[in-house]
Amino acid sequence: xxxxxxxxxxxxxxxxxxxxxxxxxxxxxxxxxxxxxxxxxxxxxxxxxxxxxxxxxxxxxxxxxxxxxxxxxxxxxxxxxxxxxxxxxxxxxxxxxxxxxxxxxxxxxxxxxxxxxxxxxxxxxxxxxxxxxxxxxxxxxxxxxxxxxxxxxxxxxxxxxxxxxxxxxxxxxxxxxxxxxxxxxxxxxxxxxxxxxxxxxxxxxxxxxxxxxxxxxxxxxxxxxxxxxxxxxxxxxxxxxxxxxxxxxxxxxxxxxxxxxxxxxxxxxxxxxxxxxxxxxxxxxxxxxxxxxxxxxxxxxxxxxxxxxxxxxxxxxxxxxxxxxxxxxxxxxxxxxxxxxxxxxxxxxxxxxxxxxxxxxxxxxxxxxxxxxxxxxxxxxxxxxxxxxxxxxxxxxxxxxxxxxxxxxxxxxxxxxxxxxxxxxxxxxxxxxxxxxxxxxxxxxxxxxxxxxxxxxxxxxxxxxxxxxxxxxxxxxxxxxxxxxxxxxxxxxxxxxxxxxxxxx
Length: 505
Description:
Layout: H1 8-18, H2 23-36, E1 40-41, E2 57-62, E3 66-72, E4 82-88, E5 93-104, E6 107-115, E7 128-137, E8 143-149, E9 181-184, H3 185-191, H4 214-217, H5 220-230, E10 237-246, E11 251-253, E12 259-262, H6 265-281, E13 294-300, H7 317-326, H8 350-357, E14 359-363, E15 366-367, E16 389-392, H9 403-415, E17 432-435, H10 448-455, E18 458-463, E19 465-467, E20 474-477, H11 480-501
Parallel strand pairs: 1-2, 4-13, 4-14, 14-18, 15-19, 16-17
Antiparallel strand pairs: 2-3, 3-13, 5-6, 6-9, 7-8, 7-10, 11-12, 12-20, 16-18, 19-20
């Protein structure tokens, strides 16, 4: 009798995505996993010369919404290759406007703006709450970032009854008809002990404020709830960045528990798989002893809006980290306490050498074939769920994949430990699939082309297949999580050997 496929990886992913409604929370979740696995936090603003050691595992963050983590092989030399996986932490969402207080026809409303290219009609009639970060005055006088995640639904964007407008297709104005309702004005007045006839209190004299305070720009109760969640007094809230999220939990679904129904599959599934792939590749305490490379993951914010921000993939974040790592001196096996005091004789071109020998996997979710729209897919490139990670190819370089990269990845997949959920009868290995978009369809974009162009590093684009991309609720394959984790683990474990075999100058 066939054994049931394992859902361990899928269920672990669910805990990750359910705790990560924003990029800030996704980075926090990644940090917790990396810290538990022995990674130490470093900061960009500090010198790394006396901190980084051979065999060490480290991570750094930028803006609290992007994270880079890496492990240094004990045989590392300046200019050596770096095996990298890049993903992104953001997803399309609705963000609360800087001045969000609205009231109409007895309803309290919250003004929002769209972030990224979402399927905004899917946000109607959902139980929504808010999450993000608040900048607060701490007791020590410092200004700190506090993450906020309200668990209970407080917002909803109601559709108009079909009796009042019978539309053939659902259409709406994103500026005037996408405002969530937060409750009734009368109920809020009652909470405050006021009535509609109560006159507004005269503005109290106080210190000069360049901007209106958060309590003046937003509904008072929303600020109070944020403050309570952040553990401070409402007057200590200086400002905040909050987005809306669906409170319905991500779950395993399907008749045979073979699917995942979830928000933010694009791209938290690939963020999760890259973090876990790196951690799993280091599960042996001696794996770095004979490694001359660096294993690195980079999860960026703002991919959904073009990545051209300080914490996006089109910034100096990854190049700056690689530049600093590329010139780390050779380790000294005779002096373990001062492993980096022996300088390499040629560090002038170490950065360029590292870029030329490194390899980047750009990991972003891919399209599964849709059974209701089969004509939208190229006939020979129709990825299916639970049949492996999808290699994405585009002749116009919207994806960065080329044949040397496919050969390297295919060998890593061949050597990967078999996913327990695999339908293959092979003793080892994980499956891969290929995807190209139809000539008469537009093609999505990833961080792959921009990073490969900026650094000249060999790059390949891939991702797990999914349906309903950019919807508030997306669908993926439960067993593809384990496929991708095992693929990434194998990539890190075999990159040093494979890089030397597949060279095209």
